Hints:
The protein has helices at residues 51-58, 81-86, 104-110, 120-130, 132-136, 147-159, 177-193, 205-211, 229-233, 236-242, and strands at 11-22, 25-36, 40-44, 66-71, 74-75, 89-92, 165-169, 197-201, 214-219, 222-228.
Amino acid sequence: MVDINKQEKANILALKDVHSFYGQVEALRGVSLQVKAGEIVSLIGANGAGKTTLLMTICGKPKAQKGEIIFLNQSIVSKPTHEIIRLGIAHCPEGRHIFPKMTVMENLLMGIAETSKEFFKQDLKRIFDLFPILYDRRTQRGGTLSGGEQQMLAIGRAIISRPKLLLLDEPSLGLAPIIVQKIFATIRQLNKELQMTILLIEQNAYHALQLADRAYVLVNGYITMQGTGQELLTNPEISKAYLGG
Ligand SMILES: Nc1ncnc2c1ncn2[C@@H]1O[C@H](COP(=O)(O)OP(=O)(O)OP(=O)(O)O)[C@@H](O)[C@H]1O
Ligand SMILES: [Mg+2]
């Protein structure tokens, strides 16, 4: 785990002028941002702005064609995805992507890194403490869980090996308001109690900005604004464009 005291002001992640393409389409047009140890950083933006592409580019798929990505003081921009994950970045993708035919337990075990197998009992216990419902459902197939339970499973699988940085793509998507509250409370808990550093994408801009230490606004592959969560929450332009006025 990251020693927050030592690295309080250090960047865990820094993107510098990152460009990403799908064929000829330039989805990221020079993105620069930083995430410091212990922070929750939110990224908000409309559909198609490039939010998912940004998280995927950090994970090396697609590869950034220009620019630099530094994670814990080393360049990861040309590393393969499995190596990036091994360095301590966990990606909880949009749409959850759990294994529907595997049980809850099997899904969680899939998330355990080769390097931390000896700790799996403690790691599993931590996930079940966080999400008791997953313990109750441990022998049930992933595909038969409710949407909220599947999201908890996806988050549980991503964090089971104590990543240094968690990338969360739309964790509240398609969930009922009461479950959304639970997911956001969990994100806060991961950050405060487990000292996890989090880069969060959300279309629910209000929640995303409320949770965030700092936030960025992405428009058509560019960062157009940044500030503390509170600054952006009270910014009239943001309010008009993303918070329903
Ligand atoms: N695999 C792909 N092939 C081609 N173009 C893609 C691909 N994935 C995304 N794009 C395009 O890249 C742009 C950014 O997409 P991205 O999925 O990153 O947006 P997003 O901000 O996550 O949107 P949403 O809020 O809808 O999830 C869009 O114009 C999209 O059509
Ligand atoms: Mg997306």
